[in-house]
Structures are given as C-alpha cells and as structure tokens.
From TrEMBL:
This is Aminopeptidase N. It comes from the Bacteria. PANTHER family: PUROMYCIN-SENSITIVE AMINOPEPTIDASE (PTHR46322:SF1). Residues 230-441 form the Peptidase M1 membrane alanine aminopeptidase domain. Residues 545-867 form the Peptidase M1 alanyl aminopeptidase C-terminal domain. The keyword Transferase does not apply. The keyword Metal-binding applies. Keywords: Aminopeptidase, Hydrolase, Metal-binding, Metalloprotease, Protease, Zinc. Residues 449-540 form the Peptidase M1 alanyl aminopeptidase Ig-like fold domain.
C-alpha cells in the first residue's frame, strides 16, 4: 500500500506554542549505541485553552516521565506521528523529567545526535533536536540550556556544548564529565554537543570593548595544521562585524568543530559551530583558491549568525530567509571587503543565476518566504539564501549604506532576544529611516519567479534629453495576481568618450515608467541594472556594437563583465538552434575580435580578465531554451571555446607563460586572480587541435605545487579527453587517496566528464575503497555532480543516467532522506526535455513516487516535478 501524501504545513495556520520550556538541564551518558538522555525542564502553559502538552520525539526509546518529581503515566507515545502527548499536566509552571535512550551509531540521517567517524556530534536545525529527546521543538520556544556530558575519558577526552564550561571531574569506571551552561535563551535548533578524541588549535581575540575571547578549532587528530586559515578567517569576521555593524561577540569562548559526515556546509550553534570539514580544513597542497575563499565566507557566515540568527531568531520556519538572506548578504559584504569587491559581486551573481534562477523557473519555484511546505529541510534553497540576500541588498540600495546600518541598529534595539518575522525586520528598517514606505517592496517576499525588466531609451537631440523607459513584467510561473515590484535600478549614461555623463538609482514601482535625464549633450549608451541592483532578467534595446562598447568602457565592472555575457549568450543560443537544425556553425567575427581585445587589454587585472574569459555555462543556456537540447548546447560551447582559442592561441599562451609562479605562495586577490587566469587560458588552449597544449596541461599538472593548479590541470586533461588523462587520474589517486577532501575533487572531475565512459566509471568509483555512501560529501561529489552538472550523460538517450540516479535516491532515502532529496533536483528539467527523453524519465519518477515508505523529503520534490 502506498503511503498517503504528507501533510502540508501552512504559514497561515501559525499558532503560538501551547506550552513553553523556560529551562532545560540535560545529562548525556554517552555510548555509541545506547546513549541515555536525561532531561529536566521547567514548563509553563502559554494558552488559556484546555490543551494537552504535545512534545516532538523521533526514534527515541522512552524510559520514564516524571512531573514535579512524581512518576507520570497519563501520556501517549505515538511513534507514527512522532509525538508524546501528556494529558492533564499541572496548570501552573511545573518540572518535567524525561529519560530516553538513543542509538547515535545507527543514526545515518545525520540529524540529532550521531557519529562522524569516532566523533559524537549533533545537528539540530531545523528539527533534529526531537531525535535527541522529547521537546517543544520549534524556534519560538526559547529556553536556557545546561548540559552535563558523561563519557569514557580515554575515548572521549574532549566534551563540548554551548556556552561556558562550569564544572568538570572524573567519575568511576574510567569516565569523566563536563558541565556546560549557556546564559542565552535559545531555540533547540541551536543546541549542540560534541565529544571525541579531537585535535585542536587555539587562539584569542580581544573585542573592541576589551573582552578576551578564547577561540578553539577542533578537528580529527593530524589535521590541526589545516585549521589556520579558518582561524584567521574567524578573527577577520569578528573584527569586520565590529567595524561594519558595531556587533561584538557575547560569550567568552567560540568553538568550531570540523566533521566529515555533515549534511550541509556548516551550522551556527551558539558558541559551538559544527562544520563540514570541507569548510574548515585547507592548506596550499590540498585546497584550491576556491576552497580558501569558501572557508573564509562560511566561517564568516556562521559567525555573523551569532547576531542575525541566534540573538534574534525566527518565529517559525517560514521566516527562514530572515536569518539566512540577511546573513548571506552579510557574508557577501565581508568577502567583498576582504577580497575584490567587483570579483565577489560577479561571482555571487553568477551563482545566483546558475542555481536560484533555475530553481525559480522550475517545478520547485517558491518565494523567499514560502506560504507552505511539506518538509522544511527542502527549503534550505538558493531562493531562501541567495535571492533572500539580493532582497536585503536592495533594501541597502534603497536606504543607502548608512540608512541600512541605522535599520540594523534599530532591529537589534527592538528585537534582541526574540524570535521574530521578516515583517519585524522591515519595520525596523522603516522606522530608522523616516518611516520609509516598504509596503510595495514586501512583494519581493511573497511572489516567486524571476521578474523581467526591459529597458529602452529615446534621445531627443533638440532638447538634449534622454528618456529611459523601464518596463517590468512577470514570468509565466509567477502568481496569477502578481503585483509590480518596487525595484532599485542603478543606471549610468555613458558618453562617446566612455565617461559617465549621469549615474543614479531609479526606483521603479509601476509596470512601466519613464525616467527623464536633462542636459545630455549627445546620445549616450545606457548601462542599466549596474552592480545587478535588482535580481531580474534584463533585456535592452542595445545593439551588438553598444554591448561591445560597454565591454570596453563601462565604469561599472559588473556591467562591463555582463556585456560580454549578453553578447556571448545571444550568439550561442542562435548557434544551438543551428546545431539542432544540423546547420554548419559559424562564430561572429566581431565577437571573436572583441574577445581578443579583452585578452590583450593590459589595463584590467588578472582576476577580472579570468572572469571575462568565462563564457556562459551550459546550465545558463539551458534556462533560455523552451526545449532543452543537451548535446547541442555542449557542442556549441565546445565550438565557441575552440574557435576563440584557435584564433587567439598566441596571446593565450603568452598569458599562460608570462605569469610566473616561482615566488612565495600567496592567497591575496592578485595571486588568486593569476592562478585563475592561467587555468582559464590553459583550459581554452586545450581545445585547440593537436597535442601541443595538452602536453602543456600535463606539464602544468605534474609541476603543480598547489591544488588550484593540480586539480585545474587535471580537469583540463579530462575535458579535452587528452591521452594523458588516465595516467594523470591514476597518479593523482595514488598521491591523495588518504585525504577524503581531495578525493572528493577527484570524484567530481570524473563525474562531470562529458564522454560516454562517465557512466561506467561512476559504477566503478562507487566500489572504490575511498567511497562511502553514508558521507554526503562523497555522494554529492559523485552522484550529485553527475545529476546536476553532467547534463549530457545524465540525459543519455538510453535512460541509464535516470535509472542510476533514481536507484541511488531510493537506496539513500532509507539512510539519509536529505541527501536523497537533493539528488532529485537532477530531474527538474522534466517538463522541458525532448519527448523521447521524457518517455525515459517519467517511468523513473513514477517508480520513485510509488515507493512504499518514501520520505516526505523526496515525495515533496518528485511530486512537484510530476505535477
Ligand atoms: N543554518 C545553516 C547555515 O546556513 C545551514 C544548515 C541548515 C546547516 C540545516 C545544517 C542543517 O549556516
Ligand atoms: Zn546560514
């Protein structure tokens, strides 16, 4: 019998909790398979209704219940719906004691208390705490926590939880204990516990007001030397939040623990962040520049949550973007200040387009503040995070940096210590800025779909007047009653000499609006949506030559970059139709020449040049196709790269060889830009016929002294299907097989290999001893990359790619539904793929949805794909 569709949770049905927990004292008797949890809570009623006390609890063995010290038996433990209902509890405040047992080792969901290798750790956002003990497990229930951890002293010398350590000692039988107290009230999702025989590094930080904070980063023994970049990043984050937002850290100790088995990137538990080891561990030899950059940003992100997330948290999970959109905006600003602002902005927009725009146009499209969900874990999305950050950025653009800061100050003044809604954030922004009217702006929170923006202009020579017309509209999947957005559109007018003659932020509020610029002495070129001020899809009346002009002159680096993308995208979309019609392909000569000009331009820095050499990805092109032609898209991209590379091989080679890497290894933006440029040049060169540049790539691979070059060259060898490929893969494996983070990269480059061998290769790699399907990073590196980024092989006409991913999803769903559900995103193109592929994909989707005992996680995504 097929299980019923899971219940839909609705924001409109929000009700305050019937009971609140004021304090909770936890005692853990840690054991790998039989951990005893004792919980003692003070509980009080929060409603006048005659409501029973309903606690959440999942996979828990209930041992005993006491109220006010007396055994209590008037309860019902329903393991189907995961609740413990206590009837006729006392009217006033009372103490509730519960004992239960859990099995951390058997817990492969990586939610609640589990083991990552030999380390005990926890993950409680959003609803993991109910896998530890029975609780009112929702973010508007905030309590003071203390934790006593009892464990074997040899196996688990380090015992950590939130807050400050207040007691410790030895116990009989080789055991010891540590007691932790967190002075701040918090929701259960921020609770954490760690125990193990961990390595660590320590440092201190002095806050502006002169308090000393102990900083500690924990990891598997032997990895201590790889924690220094994370530590430096943490200190920079602490300083930055003081400087930019006046926010200081509030406890005496800040701890970070790196674990290999983790569902997400990292978690902001109060005073005790738990991280996926991929976002902590790095050294020159084993980590790429991208890894170093990502570590700095994720360390910052989790640190910034201490104020935006922890001190002020979410009332309910529909408010998730309240903390995530804001904290992503903060980490992006941090990265911009620590590195190159223009590179950071371009990278984050590229990321937004690749993932969020695709999501927002597909079957799981949702607003940044959804109105319903089945499984909240499915809503940790690019939309909530990245589009959410764009919405915050627009608020800053509308209010100015100082006005935004005043709004942040007001937000903390009004709501510190509370669990609030996105409306409360907007309210603070408004009252701190002369009651700025956000009424229409709030449409960004409730409407899904990427808005479309059109810009046209008319120049009136006689009156020296430029009229710019902006028109907004909605995509097909927007709500039927969608209302126009209030959007800040940053615009520049550029004169024939390449200099700005006007520049300003326009506020578009109506479907279409004219903006008049006076005293414009000659017809300018318009540069619209500078710095990507609104997260929209822009079309303009600019000609091909106008775009080439922007490519050369725009003072806004984002739009200078963008102009090249617009030109390339247009050409490539036409070429895809040509390829589909089996016409010969020919690349526009003007574009080839303009590309060469960028390569030869000595006034632009390496990082920007490397970015400008990036031509639109297959995924970006797919978004623009009514029917997706995977092989044609790939063939066109290869053709364009090969044509550009063949035409410009001399300058590309010069770029490659002129950057000398002999000196000291540095991680500054300049050095990172240089390495990126070298790899980008090599990647293009490898497309040129013949072996010459493939040999160059193999040399670069063999002589690499850092992972950026080593994996960069390896991926070039694989993409160009070079004859050195097998040898390079093998030597890389031999060198790195004991380092799982490096093996994840090795798996990924093979998972995205475009030739037909990728499929058999994946089957073989799954059997390799380095692979372990209970570690999400490894699953994502292999199957996740295959389904998301190897579109040609995943969409193989035989249907074998679909079957493989469906099989693995169903196997994984029994272990870890979150990982299984994220693999389903590979199927999201369903409605736009050619009929013969649909005929292969549909039976796999049907097979999944009809599976008995399917998780809500997978059910929700697959049912939306099939709808
Ligand atoms: N709250 C985490 C973050 O964004 C993400 C996360 C969600 C981690 C759920 C684990 C589980 O920083
Ligand atoms: Zn976050």
């Amino acid at each position: 019998m097929k299980t019923d569709a899971p219940k839909v949770i609705k924001l409109s049905e929000y009700k305050q909790p019937d009971y609140l927990v004021e304090t909770i004292d936890l005692t853990f008797h840690l054991d790998s398979t039989k951990t005893l949890v004792q919980s003692k809570m003070t509980v009080s009623k929060n409603t006048t209704d005659a409501a029973p006390l309903v606690l959440n609890g999942e996979e828990l063995i209930l041992k005993s219940v006491k109220i006010n010290g007396e055994a209590f038996t008037d309860y019902k433990h329903d393991e189907e719906v995961h609740t413990l209902t206590l009837n006729r509890v006392p009217a006033g405040s009372f103490t509730l004691e519960i004992e239960n047992e859990i099995n951390p080792e058997a817990n492969k969901t990586l939610d609640g208390l589990y083991k990552s290798g030999t380390i005990f750790c926890t993950q409680n956002e959003p609803e993991g705490f109910r896998r530890i003990t029975f609780y009112v497990d929702r973010p508007d229930n905030m309590a003071k926590f203390t934790t006593k951890i009892i464990a074997d002293k040899k196996l688990y010398p380090i015992l950590l939880s939130n807050g400050n350590p207040i007691a410790k000692g030895d116990l009989d039988g080789g055991k010891h204990f540590v007691t932790w107290e967190d002075p701040f009230k918090k929701p259960s999702y921020l609770y954490a516990l760690v125990a193990g025989d961990l390595g660590f590094i320590k440092d201190t930080y002095k806050t502006t007001s002169g308090r000393n904070v102990a900083l500690e980063i924990y990891c598997d023994k032997g990895n201590e030397d790889k924690c220094h970049h994370a530590m430096e990043s943490l200190k920079k984050s602490m300083k930055w939040d003081e400087d930019r937002f006046g926010l200081e850290y509030d406890l005496d100790i800040y701890m970070i623990v790196a674990v290999d088995a983790f569902n997400m990137g990292a978690m902001e538990n109060k005073g005790l962040n738990i991280f996926n080891s991929a976002y902590v561990l790095a050294d020159q030899k084993s980590a790429t520049d991208g890894n170093f950059y990502g570590i700095e940003s994720v360390i910052g992100h989790e640190y910034f949550h201490n104020w935006t997330g922890n001190r002020i948290t979410c009332r309910d999970w529909f408010q998730l973007t309240l903390k995530e959109g804001l904290t992503v905006f903060r980490d992006q600003e941090f990265s911009a200040d620590m590195n190159s602002r223009s590179v950071e902005r371009i990278q984050s927009v590229l990321g937004l387009r690749a993932s969020q725009f695709a999501e927002d146009a597909g079957p799981t499209s949702h607003p940044i503040k959804p109105a319903t969900y089945m499984e909240i874990n499915n809503f940790y999305t690019a939309t909530i995070y990245e589009k959410g950050a764009e919405v915050i950025r627009m608020i800053q653009t509308l209010l100015g940096v100082d006005g935004f800061r005043r709004g942040m100050d007001k937000y903390f003044e009004l709501f510190d210590g509370q669990a609030v809604r996105t409306e409360d954030f907007i309210h603070a922004m408004s009252v701190a800025n002369d009651n700025f009217d956000f009424t229409q702006f709030k449409n960004w929170y409730g409407q899904n779909g990427t808005p479309l923006l059109k810009s046209t202009s008319k120049y009136d020579e006689a009156n020296k007047r430029l009229t710019l017309t902006l028109t907004q509209s909605f995509p097909a999947n927007a709500p039927k009653d969608a209302k126009p957005y209030h959007m800040p559109v940053r615009v520049g007018l550029i004169g024939a000499d390449g200099k700005d003659v006007a520049s300003k932020v326009l506020e578009l509020k109506t479907p279409t609006q004219d903006f008049v610029f006076e005293n414009i002495s000659s017809k300018p070129i318009t540069s619209v949506n500078r710095d990507f001020s609104a997260p929209v899809k822009l079309t303009t009346d600019l000609s091909f030559d106008d775009q080439l002009f922007l490519m050369a002159h725009d003072s806004d680096s984002f739009n200078r970059f963008e102009a090249a993308q617009v030109v390339a995208q247009k050409l490539m979309l036409d070429l895809i139709q040509d390829a589909h019609a089996k016409k010969p392909l020919e690349l526009n000569a003007k574009y080839v020449a303009a590309f060469g000009k960028v390569l030869a331009d000595t006034t632009i820095d390496e990082a920007f040049k490397a970015l400008s050499m990036t031509i639109p990805s297959e995924g970006i092109l797919h978004q623009e196709l009514a029917e997706i032609y995977y092989p044609e898209t790939e063939a066109v991209r290869d053709f364009v790269m090969k044509t550009l590379a063949t035409a410009h091989q001399d300058i590309l080679l010069k770029l490659f060889t002129s950057i000398d890497q002999k000196g000291e290894y540095k991680l500054d933006p300049k050095a990172m830009g240089q390495r990126d440029l070298k790899i980008k040049a090599l990647n293009l060169l490898s497309m040129v016929d013949g072996d010459k540049y493939k040999t160059l790539a193999f040399d670069h691979f063999k002589s690499a002294t850092n992972m950026t070059d080593e994996i960069g060259a390896l991926s070039v060898l694989i993409n160009s299907n070079s004859s050195f490929k097998a040898e390079a893969l093998k030597s890389f494996y031999t060198k790195w097989k004991s380092e799982t983070l490096v093996m994840q990269k090795w798996l990924s480059v093979q998972a995205v290999a475009s030739d037909d061998s990728a499929y058999d290769n994946i089957l073989a790699l799954e059997k390799d001893s380095i692979y372990d399907r209970t570690i999400p990073n490894l699953v994502r590196a292999l199957l996740g990359q295959f389904a998301a980024n190897n579109k040609v092989q995943f969409n193989h006409p035989s249907g074998r790619g679909y079957k493989l991913v469906a099989d693995r999803m169903l196997e994984l769903d029994k272990l870890n539904p979150q990982v299984a559900s994220r693999l389903a995103s590979g199927f999201k193109d369903y409605s736009r793929i050619p009929k013969d592929l649909q005929a292969k994909m549909k039976p796999e989707l049907d097979r999944i949805i009809k599976t008995d005992g399917l998780s809500k996680n997978v059910y929700e995504i697959v049912s939306k794909i099939l709808a």
